[in-house]
Write a structure and sequence with these properties.
71% of the residues lie in helices and 0% in strands. It is mainly α. The chain folds into two domains: 45 residues, Arc Repressor Mutant, subunit A; 126 residues, Tetracycline Repressor, domain 2. Helix 7 packs across helix 8 and helix 8 runs antiparallel to helix 10.
Length: 187
């Protein structure tokens, strides 16, 4: 593991520890670096702000863990893995979602999820004559649905198990994406 990656992991561990008891909005960069024995300059070498660090944590811990689930056959497993990860890091993500701001976590969640959904939409659309604009619209729809359900689940305290939420999403989406793409296909 590179020295830069080790440093980023130390900063990530620090903010995660702080966010167990302190709202993200009240955590300063100085507190993050003091908590892990680094300095502000080091922080800013790796991240532009604390929201960038939170997003990096999500990307490296959740999104990279589903790299084998970005096709239509396995996307349901990816949803379950992400929800399970969020549950394991419950306090961190409840805190992250309850912190409004310019770089709010829910916006990042949408962006990353949209990218994953576009891969699935493009795969399902193979052989169909669907415009990029229409594929993007369909990916937007499914992204809003997933992110909306996930954010609501987190903000309500994650009372249902990841299995229940993932199964509900899979039940609704299964087959509906192909039907939507066929409706948009130009013959």
């Amino acid at each position: 593991m590179s020295e830069a990656h080790i440093t980023k992991k130390a900063l990530a561990a620090s903010i995660k520890q702080l966010m167990e008891t302190i709202p993200l909005s009240k955590i300063s960069i100085q507190e993050i670096v003091d908590n892990c024995g680094l300095n502000r300059q080091t922080f800013y070498y790796h991240f532009k702000d604390k929201f960038d660090l939170v997003n990096w944590v999500y990307y490296t811990e959740a999104i990279e863990s589903i790299s084998d689930c970005t096709d239509y056959e396995h996307w349901g497993n990816g949803i379950y893995k992400i929800l399970s990860y969020l549950m394991k890091n419950k306090l961190f993500y409840i805190n992250a979602l309850n912190t409004p701001g310019q770089n709010a976590f829910d916006e990042y969640l949408f962006t990353v999820t949209h990218d994953l959904n576009m891969k699935v939409v493009n795969e399902v659309a193979a052989g169909l004559n669907v415009s990029e604009k229409d594929k993007s619209f369909i990916a937007d729809f499914y992204t809003h649905a997933f992110v909306g359900m996930t954010v609501q689940w987190i903000k309500k305290g994650m009372k249902e198990s990841p299995e229940i939420i993932a199964d509900g999403i899979k039940d609704i989406v299964e087959g509906s994406m192909l039907r939507a793409l066929k409706r948009y296909a130009n013959s």
